[in-house]
Each structure stands twice: as C-alpha cells, then as structure tokens.
C-alpha cells in the first residue's frame, strides 16, 4: 500500500522511511512480511505502513546488538561523545523536517513539534558531554596495604520501549545515556508514531553510529510479544520503559526471571496548587503551559488544579479567558495552538471525565464538547469549576485538554489531597512565601516539583517519579548511571615500604 503524500514536502524526503525498520545498520522488513498501518490523527488519512516485527525479528535485533556491544564497549568515552554530538547536530540541521513528521503522525502544532526536536536533540548534546565524565572512585581502605577503586562499565544490551506523545524526545532521552555509557540498544518505536523514530535512525546512520549499536524495531499488534521477548532475553541486561503503570508492572514481572536492571517512568496525575499569596498572572500562565501543552497529553501535565478559595474566582475567570483564546485545528494550519488527540479512544475518555464532572456538580466555563467538524479526534480545550473529590478527574489521569479547578482552604488540606494519589511523578505549586516553598516542596510525594513554573523538563534535570509512577531517573548526570554498573577492584599488598630504606 502506497503512503499518503499529503504531508508538506520535506527538504530531505529520504527521512521518511516507509515499510522498513532499522537493524544492524540496514533497512529491513519483517521476516513474515506483515505490516501495520499508521494514520494521521488530524485527518484520519493513511500516512504509511511499518513492519510488524515478531519474536524472531526482535531476537535477531538483540543478537546484532550483542555482537556490536563487544567492540562498542571498548570505544573511548570521547569517541562516543563525538558520535552523539554529530547526531545532535544532524537533528538540529533537520529540525524542520523532523517537526513536520512529528506533526503528521502525532498531531501537535508545528511550533510545538519544532520545540520538541530541539528538546530531544538536547539529550544527545547533554550526554555527549557526560560520556567523558563517567568517573569511578578511589576509596580509602580499612585494611592496611589494600587499595580500593571503582570503575563504571556499560550494563550491556538495552531494550528501550517508548510512547507516542513525544516521538523524538522519549527516544533520545533513553538512547543518549545508553550510548554514552557504551551500551548498545534495541529500541521499539511507538505503534502510533513510528516515522519520527525511523528518521532518527537514518540520522544515526549518517552520524556514524556503528552497525548494531542502535536498532529501531517496530510493531503494533505484536507489541506484547516484542515486550516479552525483550524482558525474557538473557542477553538484554536492561529495560527502560515509559508508559502506563499497568504495563510497567507487567514488564517488571516479566523481567524478574532474568533480574534485569529496570527504569520505569509510568503514569502521572500531577497536582497543580495555587496559594493565595502567588502572583496570579504567573500562576495562570504556568497552568496554561502545564495543563494544555500537547493538548494535555503529557505524563507531567497538571491534572488536578487546586486553587485557594480567596483567589479561586479570580483565577478561574482569568484562566478561562486564556483558554478561550486557543485555536484548535490541524497542526500545519496557521495560528493553531492545539491539535487533535491521538485517537478516538482518547476522546472517549476525555468526554467521559467531563460528563462525570457535570453530573456531579461541575460547571464547564469553556469547551466541554467534541469537535466533529474538525474530525473524530478533536475535543475542545475545557475548564471546569466547582470540582470535588468524588469526580473521576480527582483520581484518574485524563490525558487530555480538560482542567478541573478544585477549591481548598489550608496548606495541610491541599497537600493531603495532592498526596492521596497512588502515583507521584510531578507536582506544581505557586507561592511567594519562601518558608511555604520549602515546606510544600518537601511534603509533596512526587519525584519532581515545579515551583512558580509550569514547565520542568530539561536535559539537565533528573526526570522520574515515586510510588506507582515508577523508579529510575532520565536526563541529568543521574541518567547515565541507569546504564552503568559499578565494578569494585581491591589491590592487596600495596603498602610495602619504599625500596632502598
């Protein structure tokens, strides 16, 4: 089946890889010949097809990664740094084309997609700089004459499973530290958004990443089979996954027999708290940035907005006015601020949350409806006031453009409500009281806190959660540690007197 050619023309059409995956430096099809289709969430039109890999295909990719690891682990950190930096530069040189691919298969507006490309490339730049600085330690021994030191070694072949909401950044955030550490990888592209990852594979080839070091496989119906193959393989020593808590639990169980090193970045349900001493304009703008980025389809977006009663009405009015200024449409259209959701199932969930809130006393101040004239995957950016803890929005992650505003009175009350969630990825609060900043930041049971800002993602910052949001950190100098093991060496008999005395 021929791909749809409605995409705005690419400066480099060879970045659009159709009907192939990338294994051992070669573009390959599934051994079975099976494929799956990928559709534009804005128009519903076919974009193209990708190989439906199965267990055999995945095992082949693992074998190539294992063979490449033997030599790649021997490369110097500086050599790996140069490769990553070249890959970074190629991404920036092709930023416009990569953004067009992201918008095509994900739906986010082109401006947002360009921002994602720069953010994603930043992980290659960051870890190109971390690679030469992965130092061990010299440790004073408690036994006279012994000397102790540690070295950092790559963990081995890594299986990486990424989601659709950031088709570029979720890959580079994992691949960057893995290659910086000297590991080789088998990465599975998201079934809904595989073409961005395949473009990154093309750029990896141009950057001189050796054959077998970076393998990008694909699958949709066989996702469970691919995941099980990665987790059960004795060759794969590390699995990193970003996605739902339920799938993360399954992958952890599957990894138990082989005792894999794991990084799991799972579900979020972020509280967003505005205290009455906050700067109102700053808080409103922060809430807009956090809640409605990518139409609310981010794991760290604000899901439960708690507003102190003294400023509740003012905040709600100002926030609603901002949302009224949004323009929803296809990501390539001029002036569009928000695109579609990824598929109609996402729209169904969002609509159910809105209807539930209305039924239980919530008032929609803007939005609240599907947008069938635009397409089946569009939903109006929505604000709901009068929220209470009995509503689905209070306990379930919406993953869509719906902001429910919950009133609160005291600091303790709101922290207790925020911490009631079983997950703990990100949390946000706005306050100009320095003592409160420290108290609340330390009291929130989350892995990341934004204070007076709605945007916390940065390659320099450690990204990850607590509780049912998983464990492990991505980005920052902590990120490379997830792909390394610490080897200790003890030298005995080193305390002999100097010769000639």
UniProtKB/TrEMBL annotation:
It catalyses: succinate semialdehyde + NAD(+) + H2O = succinate + NADH + 2 H(+); succinate semialdehyde + NADP(+) + H2O = succinate + NADPH + 2 H(+). Pathway: Amino-acid degradation; 4-aminobutanoate degradation. It comes from Imshaugia aleurites. GO terms for biological process: gamma-aminobutyric acid catabolic process. It comes from the Eukaryota. Belongs to the aldehyde dehydrogenase family. This is Succinate-semialdehyde dehydrogenase. Residues 27-489 form the Aldehyde dehydrogenase domain. The keyword Oxidoreductase applies. Pfam families: Aldedh (PF00171). One of its GO terms (cellular component) is cytoplasm. GO terms for molecular function: succinate-semialdehyde dehydrogenase (NAD+) activity. The active site is at residue 265. Its EC number is 1.2.1.16. Keywords: Oxidoreductase.
